[in-house]
């Protein structure tokens, strides 16, 4: 039986980063993966969707050429070319991860892993069954889309977020079930590709986990763009399947027919067939593996990281969790801190948030003051023709420390990191507002929101 210092199951963001960090710390590492390197993020999530988003951004600009003084003629999307570009980018990045693993002397074992005992694993490989033993184990098996039990997931009209990335043509009519991050990003993509979209969300707002003001503005933008939005609404049943159409009934009595339905109601941890029953590993009520702040499970020497431990299901969180798990597995006291995790949504316009919302702060009985600044009052945003949205800052009233921020607007996913860093280092709103900002830049909106929170706005009323 092969013995290694560290065995990692799953080569997604948490797994491959944990493998690299463990190798940097001198460990012999075996990384087991049953499908493709990079996990959901690289192959079926973050990267392919952002490739499509980038194509749509260019499409948007060319369609607005006349607004900027350009005569560009009619611009049409070539969906097949967009999808091929997406595949090329994914393949290139996947090769890059393979190279990193090779350079770090990590043994990659292709196959399906399951536990025989706490530190013994069997792997079903194309060459046959292998058994390996490790001193430390990191489980990083990720998650998969949730489907409702009464929906036939195998029917060609039913899509998950993963199947949507394999489409050959743009659906003329599309129902999107679930208006969380994934649902809203696909709404932004397919709306601009010409789909007539209906969103169905059971909660009282789209983007249920986001600030109400941000969600409200995004919903207004969707509606202005001709998207039908139903909140506080459930899918009651599928009334008819056809080869190229599906008809659904909502609990408000409406019946809707579309070419496809995209189900985006969440993800569930991938733990089945892992042999966890042979370990006595503790799971929570959603099936996530329970870990402490060092990413260690209830079994000494066995760690877990990434989507398999539960929310937030974000690749950059998985990266950090993988590093924390690897460091603790090899004797370094490392802890996970979720307080300054930026959340980014690649809609049009973008959304970036970090820390506490106003409602969350009040629930904690924290006295706050708020600052807000509109992109419509920013010179660079005006020059770009991207004036929708705002920066909102949540500040502790007594200390002036920044507790959180919400941005909806151009480059929000980039701008939010400045505020994340401010929260990380305990900066006050006065310190942020007193920093000289280059003009004209979008970053000035952060300064202006900080000044607004102090009651001394410059470019807003």
What Rg do the Cα atoms give?
A: 24 Å
Write the CATH homologous superfamily of the largest domain: FAD/NAD(P)-binding domain
Shape category: globular
The count of strands amounts to 22
CATH topology of the largest domain: FAD/NAD(P)-binding domain
What is shown here, in short?
This protein has helices spanning 13-24, 39-44, 46-63, 79-103, 161-164, 181-192, 212-224, 315-329, 358-363, 379-384, 412-424, 429-434, 444-453; strands at 2-9, 29-33, 107-110, 112-117, 120-125, 128-139, 143-145, 158-159, 173-177, 196-200, 228-230, 235-241, 246-250, 255-258, 260-263, 267-269, 302-304, 343-345, 350-355, 368-374, 390-396, 402-409.
């Amino acid at each position: 039986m092969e013995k290694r210092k560290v065995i990692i199951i799953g080569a997604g963001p948490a797994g491959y980063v944990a493998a690299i960090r463990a190798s940097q710390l001198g460990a012999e590492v075996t990384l087991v993966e049953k499908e493709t390197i990079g996990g959901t993020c690289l192959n079926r999530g973050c990267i392919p969707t952002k490739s499509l988003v980038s194509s749509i951004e260019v499409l948007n600009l060319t369609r607005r050429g006349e607004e900027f003084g350009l005569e560009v003629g009619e611009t049409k999307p070539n969906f097949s070319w967009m999808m091929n570009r997406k595949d090329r980018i994914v393949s290139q990045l996947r090769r890059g991860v393979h190279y990193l693993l090779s350079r770090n002397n990590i043994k990659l074992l292709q196959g399906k892993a399951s536990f025989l005992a706490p530190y013994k694993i069997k792997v079903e490989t194309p060459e046959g069954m292998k058994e390996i033993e490790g001193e430390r184990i990191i489980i990083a098996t990720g998650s998969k889309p949730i489907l409702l039990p009464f929906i036939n997931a195998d029917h060609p009209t039913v899509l998950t977020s993963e199947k949507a990335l394999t489409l050959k043509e743009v659906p003329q009519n599309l129902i999107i079930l679930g208006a969380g991050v994934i649902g809203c990003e696909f709404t932004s993509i397919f709306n601009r590709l010409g789909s007539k979209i209906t969103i169905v969300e059971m909660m009282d707002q789209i983007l249920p986990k986001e600030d109400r003001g941000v969600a409200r503005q995004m919903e207004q933008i969707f509606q202005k763009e001709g998207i039908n939005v139903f909140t506080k609404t459930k899918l009651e049943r599928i009334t008819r399947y056809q080869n190229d159409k599906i008809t659904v009934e909502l609990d408000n009595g409406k019946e809707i027919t579309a070419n496809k339905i995209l189900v985006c109601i969440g993800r569930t941890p991938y733990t089945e067939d892992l042999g966890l029953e042979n370990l006595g590993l503790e799971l929570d009520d959603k099936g996530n593996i329970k870990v402490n702040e060092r990413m260690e499970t209830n079994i000494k020497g066995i760690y877990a990281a990434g989507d398999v431990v539960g929310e937030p299901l974000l690749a950059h969180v998985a990266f950090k969790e993988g590093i924390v798990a690897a460091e603790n597995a090899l004797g370094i006291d490392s802890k996970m801190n979720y307080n300054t995790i930026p959340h980014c949504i690649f809609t049009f316009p973008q959304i970036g948030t970090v820390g506490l919302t106003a409602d969350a702060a009040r629930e904690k009985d924290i006295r706050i003051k708020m600052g807000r600044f509109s992109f419509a009052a920013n010179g660079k945003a005006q020059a770009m023709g991207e004036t929708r949205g705002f920066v909102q800052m949540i500040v502790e009233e007594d200390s002036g420390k920044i507790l959180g921020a919400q941005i909806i607007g151009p480059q929000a996913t980039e701008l939010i990191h400045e505020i994340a860093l401010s929260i990380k280092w305990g900066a006050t709103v006065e310190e942020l507002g007193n920093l000289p900002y280059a003009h004209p830049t979008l970053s000035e909106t952060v300064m202006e929101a900080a000044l607004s929170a102090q009651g001394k706005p410059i470019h807003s009323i």
